[in-house]
Design goal:
Number of strands: 0
CATH class: Mainly Alpha
Order of helices and strands: HHHHHHHHHHH
Radius of gyration: 26 Å
Number of helices: 11
CATH superfamily: MetI-like
Structural class: mainly alpha
Distance between the termini: 63 Å
Pfam families: BPD_transp_1 (PF00528)
Family: Belongs to the binding-protein-dependent transport system permease family.
Protein name: NitT/TauT family transport system permease protein
Helix content: over 70%
CATH architecture: Orthogonal Bundle
CATH topology: MetI-like fold
Number of domains: 1
Largest sheet: none
Subcellular location: Cell membrane
InterPro entries: MetI-like, MetI-like_sf
Amino acid sequence: MTAIDNTDQRPETIWSEHVSFMDRIPRTIAMAGLLVGFVALWQLIYTIGVVSPIILPGPWETGADIVFVGKNLLSGGYMLTALWITIKEVIFGFAIAITIGFLLGVLVGETTFGERAVLPYLVAIDTMPKVAFAPLFLAWLGFGIASKVALAAFIATFPIVVGTAAGLYVADENARMLFKTMGASRFQTLFKMKLPLGLPQIFTGLKIAAVGVMAGAITGEFLGGGKGFGELIRVASSQLNTPRVFSLIIFLSLLGLTLFWSVVWLEKKLVFWHKSSVSGGIGT
């Protein structure tokens, strides 16, 4: 008798993940549909009169004002000068935050003194309301651009500290022992092993700081005057020119997105081996 081999007759089990309809919608279409739905809801609220037009203008009024602000920027008007002042505050504040945040992050992540003595003070300062420090910066640095830069850097520093310190802890014990066995110095271990492996965490801190630095600069302009976009928003708000407030906020959000996208782009170039879930598919 011939033995019957049933090994090839067993059904194969294929596991497949069910993808919902919402997840199959292309990114561009999903974003466009969300925008259209938001504008439609906005128009409906405006038409019904749920909120006073002084408080919430219609989308078409706001759109017209966005066009006006855009033309003023393109023609080199006074709004371009104000935008350039805000851009300088953001760039200088971000640069200072990166420098201070990286140095403090290395101190906290590399030394016991930094972890045990410095970190508790940094956490205590970060838990305080940042806006409360604005009058102090104004008193110390005056009503010029320096106080706004200082507040922007102050708000953006702590995420970079945390990201840098967390990144230095990523390297496992085997990698540390390998470098130690090869006779690498502490400086070589830091720059050739710990920092490269910790870049994803460092860039996470940078992306959070890129958002916070914008809030710091605009808050400084609100509370301490100045000649940037924040001052234009304050003036428009005092005149109950709500469409102008909305349009200026939209252009500020574009500035913030540009800074954030710049960090994401740099991350993709330097940390190409790591897939970031925080940035999502932005820029792809």
